[in-house]
Amino acid sequence: MDIAAYDPLNETPYQILDAQGKVILDHWEQSLSDSELIEAFKNMLFVRQFDTMAISYQRQGRMYTYPPNLGQEALSVASGSVLQKTDWMVPSVREMGAWYMKGVSLKELFLYYRGHEIAQRFEQANRIMPITVPIASQIPHAAGVGYGIKFHGEKAVVLTFIGDGGTSEGDFHEALNFAAVWKVPLITVIQNNHYAISLPVHKQTASKTLAAKSLSYGMPGIRVDGNDYIAMHEVLSGSIDYARQGNGPVLIEALTYRRGAHTTSDDPKKYRTQEEEQEWEPKDPVNRLRSFLVHKNIWNPDEEAELIEGYRKEIDTQFLEAEQYPPHSLDDVFAYMFSELPPELEAQKQEYQDYLNATAQEPQK
Amino acid sequence: MSRKKYSVAIRDVIAEEMRSDPSVFVMGEDIGALGGVFGCTRDLQKEFGKNRVRDTPIAEAGYVGTGIGAALTGMRPILDFMYLDFVYVAMDQLLNQAAKLRYMYGGRATLPLVVRGQQGIGRGNAGTHSQSVEAFFTHIPGFKVAMPSTASDAAGLLRTAIRDNNPVMFIEHKALYASSEEVPDDPNFAIPFGKAAVRRQGKDVTIIATSLMVGRALEAAEALSKEGIEAEVIDPRTLLPLDLDTMLKSIEKTGRAVVVHEAHKNNGVGAEIASQIMEAGFKFLDAPVVRLGAKACTLPFSLVLENAVVPGVDDIHEAAKQVCYK
Predict the structure, then answer these.
(1) Residue B251 — left, alpha, or beta (φ > 0 → left; ψ -120 to 50 → alpha)?
(2) Mean of pLDDT values over A156-181
(3) Which of A56, A225, A331, B36 could form a disulfide with A15 if both were Cys (CB 3.0 to 4.6 A apart)?
(4) Per-residue pLDDT at A364
């Protein structure tokens, strides 16, 4: 698709499937193969299992605070699937599907949410930054990665995520401005899930759309139905083609809805109605792609139960591996501050080691 | 050796490092055609082009953040701050991102960033353009902090900073830019971090001074000498790492110490240095360590008042006599 041809002020998102999984465009040709769509559906199903199980582990006291992804799986799986191995990803916090598609292992994610920062080395994945919990601080990094890509003369692109809330931050503005002026190959995906924790999007901005912000930077912008896997995939592919050809950055506003809480420490009942939550339930991305596949007679939903059982076993195995990972070592505290251990830290580490040695020798009371 | 101004020494080292390492580049405001408001990047864009001497829009958080991103792709950014007072608008990127990313990435990220610029009094630039910012960067772990007081040190320390694989806050002084001295021509001349310079030998009192205050401490030492007090003047050169050993060695001899900086005295680096001296060298001390620093007020616009609120030669002189009980 020609991404530059879209009007970022258009409030009606680019959409291919309706809530029932029926194609709403007149002259639409399926660009992904049936098997690619089935694969995408399975990945979304897998991510949903991971997500619900992660919440359970957290509730069991086996993980720290976790940000649920329920309802946002289509856009994240699509984002991860369009990137090549040499492309960069600069994450935010709620796009599990993208990290998974980029090669991050579940064990690493579980380890991270159990407090092991070393898991963020993401050894299996190429060119991915760590999860970024502060809001919007990752967007300048992504623009800088884009600058590096351009400087090195690579054909790669960089894709980053931000929530609707993050678009109010100065970092978002500064980074997009830099990216456009320097024409770097940056794709910024705004996950507009309608809430910045508790603040609804209409109280965050007076803009008609978040995509509209692209106009002020001089880059293409498009609002897309982020719960429509196929639409999302087309928009991402078009944006990446545009950026890879050296035309500069693109801003994508993906409309979605955070069906769960902001994090496992949040209670959405305090700031939104049940009616609203129910209104979004039928627009769920997993159900929508399933319906499309069933209409096409290429998917039998009866097979899902067995599939899910297998996924859950695999996820649990990886969680148990993370749980059995050795406890923290002193190096976890000191070794990663600088590329070498400075004398001050060396001394503090030794002091700590002496303390540990001394207490280890004390008889147990 | 060539006689060079402090600002020229800085410019020349940047140029030499850019010539020898194609991943080194400079980003900042008005550094290209203008060559920097203080001339520290003069003519660099002519030699290295617009991609390696990159003028940025006015957005400090933006270029620190993009510098971090570029570093992750293997580049070695030098981030030019016109005034270091402007770090405040980039603090999240500096202290929450640059300082922490390596740790939070489990050591996978290498961030060879140099953040450099000038600070301090001397031009009557008023409250938002005359401050000293070092304490912010010595408090939050993640940066190394260098504060050269001479042209030669500026050259040697900057080369070390550019070649270091960690974020470095490189703090120059606007009132020192015009000072000059002989600077080694060797394109590998580097001064290691964590090695203090003993600027003057003395047996009676140790004066620890940074940046602009080094010159004032030396002036005070000359005056003290006429009164029979021989002061040893130590310039730590880097605050992180801090060369406590050289200071303790001096204090073992003198038994007395004055710590002086231009930054506010309250919660300043001087408090840290004085504490470290007392923790490690209390047995050497014949008098309490005295700290000198700017008053806890906004730096005034007036050059007269500016000088009145930061330590002067007389203040250092008096403090040295005080610890000598004279």
Answers:
(1) alpha
(2) 98
(3) A225
(4) 54
- Helix, strand, or coil here: A267? coil
The catalytic residue among B16, B17, B60, B172 is: B60
Q: B133 in a domain, yes or no?
A: yes
B306 is catalytic: no
Q: Name residue B260's beta-bridge partners.
A: B209, B292
Residues of B with CB under 8 A from a CB of A: 25, 51, 56-57, 59, 61-75, 92-93, 96-97, 101-110, 141-142, 144, 165-166, 194, 240-242
Q: List, for residues B83-110, the tens digit of each pLDDT value.
A: 999 999 999 999 999 999 999 999 998 9
Q: Which domain, by its residues, includes A357?
A: 331-361
Same domain, A89 and A148: yes
A-chain CB neighbours of B110 within 8 Å are 339
Contact B69 A146 (CB under 8 A): yes
Distance CA A42, CA A180 (A): 36
- Give me the pLDDT at residue A365, please: 52
Rounded Cα–Cα distance for residues A240 and A159 (Å): 9
* Residue B267 structural domain: 197-324
Q: What pLDDT score was predicted for residue A148?
A: 97
The C-alpha of B188 sits at a distance from chain A's nearest C-alpha, in angstroms, of: 21
B188 lies in a domain?
no
Q: What mean pLDDT value characterizes chain A? A: 96
| Interchain contact, A152 vs B73, CB within 8 Å | yes
Q: Is the pLDDT of residue A363 over 90?
A: no
Q: How many domains does chain B have?
A: 2
pTM of the model: 0.96
Which among A48, A116, A127, A262 is annotated as catalytic?
A262
Tell me: pLDDT of A269 over 80: yes
The pLDDT value recorded for residue A76 is 98
Mean of pLDDT values over B42-64: 97
Are B249 and B119 found together in one domain?
no
Catalytic-residue membership of A262: yes
- Set of chain B residues whose Cβ sits within 8 Å of the Cβ of A177: 57, 59, 62
**By the 8 A CB rule, do B93 and B68 touch?**
yes
Strand B197-200's sheet: what is its strand order? Answer: B197-200, B231-235, B205-209, B257-264, B290-294
Q: How confident is the model at residue A362 (pLDDT cuts 50, 70, 90)?
A: low
Say whether B68 and A122 touch across the interface (CB within 8 A): no
Q: Which residues pair with B245 in a beta bridge?
A: none
In the set B16, B17, B29, B129, the catalytic residue is: B129
